[in-house]
Write a structure and sequence with these properties.
Shape: flat
CATH architecture of the largest domain: Orthogonal Bundle
Strand order of the largest sheet: 1-3-2
Helix content: 55-70%
Oligomer: single chain
Structural class: mainly alpha
CATH topology of the largest domain: Multidrug-efflux Transporter Regulator, Chain: A, Domain 2
Mean pLDDT: 76
Largest sheet: 3 strands, antiparallel
Distance between the termini: 77 Å
Number of domains: 3
């Protein structure tokens, strides 16, 4: 029995949809067959209709792929997108969910930002593999790309990218579980605030999402501001002893050392 026959109320709508095999869907959507399979495995894409050993996709799957592509371009990762679709299947409003997730993730670079520049780093190297494993880089077309635009801009303009990458990894190693503990503390404060205001287990309705997302964004941005300020103060103290005496004034002011023209 097909999926259309199993869902009689939507049989007419289902029958009207065009159907595609995997290769056809990949060609029309611009998403590779490999990525489509990965989206299915991660829960982003609904299962296809099965007939024997054949799998058939329809226009709804094509629409899902278009949505996935848009969300990926805006900086959402596959875990968040899978949650979006799961919540939609439960009947929640996507606009409210997206609003909350955007507040959690913070502002994203818009689509006009220049294309990312690959690092001058062997994808098979230990450094590249460690960057990927800790979520700071991605591999694409046999190249390594840092996922954070600010870090990518600094590292790719350097003539000694490897030393910059090694510095990043030293920071990652030194933090251990500290960052996760700190994030959990900040998230716990937000959870307490939401529970106190709305009750535990609250799911925002579409007409209430603005207030909720505002509170989430404030807590996120405030937490980042506090940590950034404290780290900046600590860096200024420590870096004074790490550079030559004639540069300590510049470090204390937080400015770049001028170069001779």
């Amino acid at each position: 029995m097909s999926s259309c026959e199993e869902a009689a109320p939507v049989a007419v709508w289902c029958a009207a949809l065009a159907e595609y095999r995997l290769d056809d869907l990949a060609r029309i959507s611009g998403v590779s067959s490999r990525n489509i399979r990965a989206y299915r495995e991660r829960g982003l894409l609904d299962p296809p209709r099965r007939q024997g050993r054949s799998a058939f996709y329809d226009d709804y799957h094509l629409s899902q792929l278009n949505t996935i592509n848009q969300l990926l371009r805006k900086g959402f990762n596959s875990a968040h997108i899978a949650e979006f679709f799961a919540r939609m299947r439960e009947g929640h409003d996507l606009a409210a969910i997206l609003g909350v997730q955007q507040a959690i993730l913070g502002s994203k670079a818009d689509d006009s930002v220049a294309e990312a520049v690959a690092l001058d780093l062997d994808p098979e190297s230990d450094e590249a593999q460690r960057l990927v494993s800790c979520g700071l880089a991605e591999l694409a077309e046999n190249s390594v790309f840092l996922v954070h635009p600010g870090m990518a801009e600094i590292v790719t303009r350097s003539t000694d990218q490897l030393s910059y990458v090694q510095m990043i990894l030293r920071v990652v190693d030194s933090t251990g579980g500290t960052i996760d503990d700190l994030a959990a503390t900040l998230a716990g404060s937000l959870e307490d605030a939401l529970a106190a205001r709305y009750g535990s287990g609250y799911v925002p309705k579409s007409d209430e999402s603005g207030e909720v997302t505002g509170l989430i964004a404030d807590y996120r941005d405030l937490g980042i501001a506090v940590v950034t300020h404290l780290l900046d103060k600590g860096l200024r103290r420590e870096m004074v002893s790490a550079v030559p005496d004639d540069a300590t004034g510049v470090v204390a002011r937080g400015n770049r050392v001028p170069t001779n023209s």
